[in-house]
Amino acid sequence: MWQFNLCTEYSPRPDAMRKLRIAVDLDGVLADTITSFCKILNKRYSTHFTVESFDRWNAWQNAGISQNEFLGTLDEAWLDWRSIQTMEENLSEKVGKLATFGQVDIVTGRSLHTVQYAKAWLKEQHIPFDTFIRTQSTNAKVKLSYDLFVDDSPDLMALIASTLDSHGILYTQPWNRMAPEMPRIVRVQRWNEIPPVLEEMVGKDRTRSSK
Ligand SMILES: [Mg+2]
Asked: Ligand 1 centroid to 151 CA: how many Å?
């Protein structure tokens, strides 16, 4: 039985329900948490990890630490949320462009106690969104009814590809470069590649409904 712990402040725009429902991930898609993670880990162990060091989703194996320590260190990075950078310049504007396609929610598997920091970061960075939703895990996201997920998890993309009609945009990171091509999954390198993908999705829907 899947369980979701939803932290919602639900206020969709009046026209949102007729449009796409879009789930945007936080870590690794909006927030460059892994850079902060590397700084903490390198200080702790006098190591020289960089973002490029992490070439698999189970990144704790790259670092030679336990999964618990990995997740705990990511949480630690969020305690110092003001020092977390955006993945790209002008991210607020880039994310804002998604609003013309429908409802844009932040959907994250962040731990409960870091949600307050994540929300503060989103506000500070002026990232526009409709609802903030927390799931128990990254993979649990697939059970939510979104038309499209923007995420950096190759495992989530595999789950999306196995659904009937959900779509995924895989935001390229070192830990997902090895992910194979999958149905209804489009890989992008940068945020400005996302609106054209959505244009095509909406266009295909129109073509289908006019037949
Ligand atoms: Mg992520």
From this structure: 6
